[in-house]
Amino acid sequence: MNYNSEKAANYFEEVKRMLDAVLSQIEPFVMELYSAYQEGATIFVVGNGGSAANASHFAQDLAKGTLSNISQKKRIRAVSLTDNGSFITALANDEGYETIFVQQLMTYAQTKDRLVVISGSGNSPNVVKATEYALDNDIKVLGVTGFDGGQVKGLAKINIHVPSHDMGLVEAVHSVIFHLVMSELTNALTEEN
Q1: Up-side HSE of residue 179: CA atoms within 13 Å toward CB?
Q2: pLDDT tens-digit series, residues 116-140
Q3: Which domains does the chain have, with CATH numbers?
């Protein structure tokens, strides 16, 4: 194998270009999550594949990574719906994979909660159905998409869209965005506590 440093440099340039493309989209996303925190609402996070991993990581960062100290009373309530393997596989087996997030929302979510939908294509049936359920039940939807944004981009109240058709690049940029969002929220919560 020959490592190609020119291709590596081009990849990093493309990451920077994608980050520049989404910069103006991040503030409304942060402010909506901050509003959820102020209201004591729960933020549910969903995704498939690499986006499921990002969902799990982002929910953990919101719930714990934003704490200025471990005894902090008021916290961001965030849960990834990708992490309950028994529930997900039971739902997928008995009701169909497209229901795995809707059924969990029906169990756990309440009016005025938030749903963060992470999807490269924005068209996976399970995230689209979760988005539609949330909108029908007064749960605000925040999308984080790639490719052309798909159905999620059109339905989400707020959407951060990475305009690339390279799934690895989309997922990498999503991860950078989530760490920036966590950093901004950590700063806000630290000022309060």
Answers
A1: 6
A2: 999 999 999 999 999 999 999 999 9
A3: 11-188 (3.40.50.10490)
